[in-house]
Design goal:
The complex is a heterodimer. Chain A is mainly alpha-helical. In chain A, 57% of the residues lie in helices and 3% in strands. Chain A has three domains: 56-173, no CATH class; 176-210 and 229-295, no CATH class; 359-472, no CATH class. Chain A is built from 24 helices and four strands. In chain A, the strands form two sheets. A two-stranded antiparallel sheet of chain A has the order 1-2. A two-stranded antiparallel sheet of chain A has the order 3-4. In chain B, 34% of the residues lie in helices and 12% in strands. In chain B, the strands form two sheets. An eight-stranded mixed sheet of chain B has the order 6-5-7-1-8-9-4-10, with helices on both faces. In chain B, strands 2-3 form a two-stranded antiparallel ribbon. The radius of gyration of chain B is 21 Å and the shape is globular. Classes of the chains: A mainly alpha, B alpha/beta. Chains A and B meet through helix 11, helix 18, helix 19, helix 20 and helix 22 of A and helix 6, strand 6, helix 8 and helix 9 of B.
Amino acid sequence: MTATQKDIEAAIAVTRFGLGAKAGEIAEAARDPRGYLQAQVRREGAETFATGGETSAQRLAEFRDYRRQRVMAEQAGKGKGDEADPVKAARGFLRQNLGGDIQARLELAVETDAGFRERWALFWANHFTVSATKVQAASLVGPYENEAIRPHVFGRFADLLDAVETHPAMLVYLDQAQSIGPNSRAAQVLKRGGRRRAQTDGAPPRPKGLNENLAREIMELHTVGVDGGYSQADVTEFARALTGLGLAGPRDGAPPGQVIFRELAHEPGERMVMGVRYKGTGKAQSGAILADLAAKPQTARFVCTKIARHFVADDPPPALVDRLVEAWTSSGGDLGRVAIALVDAPEAWVPAARKLKTPYEFVASSFRAVGHPPPMRANQAIGTLGQRTFGAPSPKGWPDEAESWAASDALVKRMEFAQGLSAAVGPGVEDPMRLADAALGARLGPAAAKAISRAETRAEAVALLLMSPEFQRR
Amino acid sequence: MTRFRPSRRAFAAAGLALPFLARVADAAVPRGRKFVVVICRGGMDGLTVAPPVGDPDYRALRGALALGDEALALDGTFALHPSLASVHALARAGEARIVPAVATPDRARSHFEAQDVLETGAPGVYATTSGWLNRAVQAMAVGGKTDAISVGATAPLILRGAAPAASWSPGRSIDATARLPALLQDLYSDAPLLGPALARGLATETMARETGADGGGAMRAGAGQGREAARTMGSSLADFLKAPDGPQVAAVSLDGFDTHANQMVQLANRLAGLDALVDGLHGGLGPAWKDTVVLAVTEFGRTARANGTGGTDHGTGSTALVLGGALTGRGIVGDWPTLKRQALFEDRDVYPALDMRALAKGLLAEHMGVERKALDTLVFPDSAGVEPLRSAI
C-alpha cells in the first residue's frame, strides 16, 4: 500500500503542528488535514489548566504571608526543622502549588483533542517566559499563563502584550514591582526616610530608584527584537515611563497583590522612546509605548520568524516568514489570522521533518502515543531531559534549535525515558506495529517499521518507536 | 574496554572532514594539559566577584552594595567576595588570578547577544553557529587525540561545532544488557544529528561508569543548583578529565547571575556555587590539577553604580578568573582602568580594558599550544588585530 499525499499531510498535521498523535487522530485528520487544524483556531483562546481555582492575586497574598511568617520565625529564633514551623508548612504549600500546576498543564497536553491549539499556546508561554527559578514568581507562573496568555493567543498581539506586561507575575519576575522614578515624589520621601533610618539603626536604605530589566526585555525579547533599532537611552526612557506600575501593598487601599499604578512613584515628565515623544502621564504613557511597540514592523518580523522557526525549521524559509508577516500586518496583528496563514503555507508541509521535538513535546507525545495519562514523575523526566517545566533559565525562554536539544547526553537520557516508559506500558500493548501506525501514520519509514516488527519484546518495540528518528523529529 | 574516543564511524557520520583535521594538526597539545571554561550566565557583577576595595571611588559608587572588611584581601586594591573562600586559598598559593576589566567585543548589553559573541568567538553577533572552544579543539586535534566534554543536560554553544564533543549530566545509568542502544545505533545510521550524538553519549556513559564519575549511582538527577550540587559537578568533571583517555577540554555553565535586585543575597549564593565547583574540580583532579587551567567568564559586567532596587543593571566590563595548578604568574591579569568617573565606559560601566578574545587566545597559546594562525582565523575569526595576551598564566 502506498501512502497518498493526504495520508502524509494528515501525519504532518498531527505531529508537526500538534503534540503528536493519540489513537485515531491521524485517521481523523486525513479527511481534511488543513481544515482539521484550522478548526482548532478559536477566538476565545486556548484551554486553561487547573490551578486549584486560585488566581495570581491569591497566590501572591499566600507568598507574602509565607515571607512574613519566615521573618517572624527567624526573629523568634525557631529551629528550621521544627515540625510546627509555619515556614516549613508554607514552603511545602508553595511547592505543592507549583507541582500541581505543572501536572495539570502536562495532563492537558497529553489529553487535549486540539494539539495545534495547545502547541500555539505553549509557543506564546515560552515567548513571554516567566520562570519559577525566581522564587517570588514560582507560584504565579501557572495562574499567569492561564490569565494573561491563554485567553489571548488567537486575539490581537497588542492585547496579549498588554495582558502579559501588566500581569503581577511579569512585574515580579522582571523586577518592575520595585522600580521607582528617581525624581518621583516617592523617591524624595524614601530618600529622606532612608537617611533618617540609616542614622538610627544602620539598616541599608530601601530601594529608591529605577530598574531597567522589564523595559529592556520587552524590547529585546517580546517585541522588536535585539536588532529592532533601539538604544540604551531608549531602554532607560522606557523604564522611566514604566515606573509607577507595581503591586498593591498593605497600605495601598487595593487588594494586596493587585496590579496598581502609583502616580507618586511615576517619573514625571515626557519621554522619548525610539524617536517618538510621549507626553501623557500615568499609566497611559507606558501603555502608549507598548501599543506602538506592538505595531512596529520589526515586531511583526521578529515574532513571525520565531513562529516559523518553532513550527517548521530551525532556519525557516524566508517565503514562509513573509507570509506570516503579511497576515500579521494586514490584520493589525491578529494572531488567529497568523495561525491560519501558518496552516495555509505550503512551506510548512514539506515532508522532511526538520525539527527535533523539545523534551516537553517528546514526553507529552510519548504519553499520547501509548495512551496513558502522565504520572507525577513524568515532569521529573522532562527536567532530566533538560527542560524543567516553568523553569526556563532566563527570560529568553527555552531554545528552539535542534542542536540545543541533541547533546549526546540528552539523547541517552531520552533513551532511558523511552526504556522506562516502555517497560511499564509496553507489555500491555497488543500490537506494537498498529501502535506505530497510529502514532506516525504515513511518516513511519521502512527502517523503523522493520526494527519495530523485529523487536524481541513488546517493550523493546515500543521503545524503538519512541526513539525512532520519525518520532523524535517532527 | 570501551575507550572514550568516538568511533571512526561517529566521525564519519558527523560528516567530519578528517583531511581538514590533518591540515591543522601540526599544533601538538602538550601531553596531559587540561583546559576548562566555566560560563557564568546572566552578566556576573565583576565588582562583587573581586571588589576593588582600595579604589577610592568604589565605596561611593556602590553604596549599600560595597563590601568592607568581610572581603578576602588579595592586594592593596582588590579583594574577593567572602563566598569565594576556595578561590582565595588558591590565589594565596599562586593558583588563581583575577582579570578585572574584561569584555567581549559586543556592546549591546543584551544577555543573549553577548552570550552569543562570548561563545562563538566571532567579532559580531550571530556570525557563526559553532563555538570557539569547539574550533580550538579542532585546532588542537592530532588525529583526534583531543576530546571535549560539557557537563549539563544541554550542549552549550561554546562547544558546538564540527569537532565531536560529548556531554554528560547525572542521572540513572542505562541498562547495559539491553539491546536497545545497539538497535538504535543501527536505526540512526542515516540520521545526521541523532546518530553521532547517541554514539558519543553511550561512550560517555560507559566512561562515567568506569571512572566513577557517576558517583556509583549515588548522584541524582535534578539535584539542583545548590552548593553541593556544584561541588559534585566539579568532581565529576574531574573524574572525566583525569581518565586515561579522558577529554582535555571541558565547558560547564552556571546560571543565575542576572542580579537587578537584591544582589547581595543572590550573588552570595551564586558565588558560593562557583567556589564549590572550583573546589570540587581542584580536589577531584588531584595531581592533574598542576596541568590544568580554568577560565571563568561571563557575557558582560554590570553597572558600576547600584541601581534603585538593591541591584545593578546590564553593563560592560566584568571580572574573569584564571585558575589552575599550571599558573606561574602573580598579580592581576590585564590593567585596571579604575572607577574614576572619566574612566567609566559611557559614564556607567566598568571600562572594557581587555578583549576577552585576547585573554582566551593567550591561554590557548600558552597552555594548549594552539598556534597563532589558527587562533587568528579558525578559533577567533577575523581577530588578527587582537594580540594574544602574554603571561596570563
